[in-house]
Design goal:
By secondary structure, the protein is α+β, with helices and mostly antiparallel strands. It has 17 helices and nine strands. It has four domains: 63 residues, no CATH class; 91 residues, Endonuclease I-creI (Roll); 120 residues, Roll (Endonuclease I-creI); 44 residues, Arc Repressor Mutant, subunit A (Orthogonal Bundle). The strands form two sheets. Strands 5, 6, 7, 8 and 9 form a five-stranded mixed sheet that branches. A four-stranded antiparallel sheet has the order 1-2-4-3.
């Protein structure tokens, strides 16, 4: 009877193993007696038991989680991709952490393979058309910085982490486009190519895009402007001047030349070459294609001004003068207009 009374008093609030040891019984015998006399664990004890189990499970998980220590350069690739095509997903049903994932088409596979080479020692893998990491506390903490309201949002705290050219290169290859516009001078049959760069940051609000443009321009000395667009949240980033396009390409090119499949993004000449057949079908087979260059927008030297004046006086055409100086036809036209207005010609 003493054993029964002891069990009635202590079984609801104490571990069964402890009671069994005290009474010199097995845990099975204690449970049998408790069941016979309808003695149950109290709700407070059960809640505490669950809390302890969760705490122990979390500690076990943390103790057995592999290390994840990306280098500074690896982090810049991850950050750039997360502002581009990548995102942080939920882990499996039993996982408490986030993971990195990005989907890609077949034409981007070589680029994703390059990413894998940079991140493979961190446990990244390609499965089907996805590049993924394992779930890890690192990405859970990163999620809090990039998804403060469970929506991808640009914060100064996150942007301040993004300062290496590899970040810019990855964002550009993920979300950017080198766009070429073509204008034909029918008199000379020359097609002039004018490059611009667009970052399709349509998931961000106009305020966020302004914040991103300011960060990129301050960090990399670029000159992005925010431009309206009918899709997404209504805005994206653009660079329109040739010199500024060349400047951005100069920054990212050393880090991406190992990805030949992406050359059309970091080489204006390659981009134009790939559209050569299309342009000949559009403008004719006898066209001459010239790529706009910041060099042709350089300030005229005194020597060049003298050449312009002398050649014009000798009866040369504007195009012949432009060819002699490696400038555009319209550059010479504008310079002659300036010279006439100033009385120098």
């Amino acid at each position: 009877m003493d054993d029964i009374n002891f069990i009635k008093k202590h079984f609801p609030t104490q571990p069964t193993e402890k009671i069994a040891k005290k009474l010199n019984l097995t845990t099975s015998q204690v449970r049998t007696i408790a069941k016979k006399y309808h003695i149950k664990k109290c709700e407070t004890y059960k809640k505490q038991l669950i809390t302890n189990l969760v705490r122990h499970r979390k500690k076990w998980y943390e103790d057995n989680t592999p290390q994840f220590k990306p280098s500074f350069e690896q982090e810049q690739i991850i950050f750039g991709s997360l502002l581009g095509d990548g995102y942080l997903g939920n882990g499996g049903e039993r996982s408490i952490n986030r993971y990195y994932q990005v989907h890609f088409g077949e034409n981007q596979k070589k680029y994703r393979m390059w990413k894998l080479e940079q991140l493979e020692d961190l446990g990244f893998k390609i499965s089907g058309n996805y590049l993924r990491s394992a779930s890890h506390p690192y990405f859970t903490q990163l999620y809090k910085k990039l998804y403060p309201n469970n929506r991808k949002s640009l914060t100064n705290h996150f942007l301040n982490l993004c300062k290496h050219p590899l970040f810019l290169a990855t964002l550009y290859l993920d979300d950017g486009s080198l766009t070429i516009s073509y204008n034909q001078n029918e008199r000379t049959n020359i097609v002039y190519c004018h490059p611009s760069i667009i970052f399709y940051t349509l998931n961000f609000s106009k305020d966020e895009n302004e914040k991103l443009a300011n960060h990129l321009n301050t960090t990399f000395n670029t000159n992005f402007v925010v431009s309206g667009h009918p899709d997404g949240n209504g805005s994206l980033l653009k660079i329109n001047k040739v010199s500024e396009v060349e400047h951005l390409i100069k920054i990212v090119k050393p880090y991406v030349t190992g990805i030949p499949s992406m050359k059309y993004k970091y080489s204006i000449e390659e981009n134009v070459r790939l559209k050569k057949e299309h342009n000949r079908n559009k403008f004719g087979n006898n066209i001459q294609i010239k790529i706009s260059s910041s060099k042709r927008r350089r300030t005229y030297t005194d020597k060049e001004i003298n050449i312009v004046i002398q050649m014009k006086q000798e009866g040369y055409t504007n195009q012949q003068i432009a060819d002699q100086l490696d400038r555009t036809y319209w550059s010479v036209v504008y310079k002659l207009t300036e010279l006439r207005k100033s009385g120098l010609f």
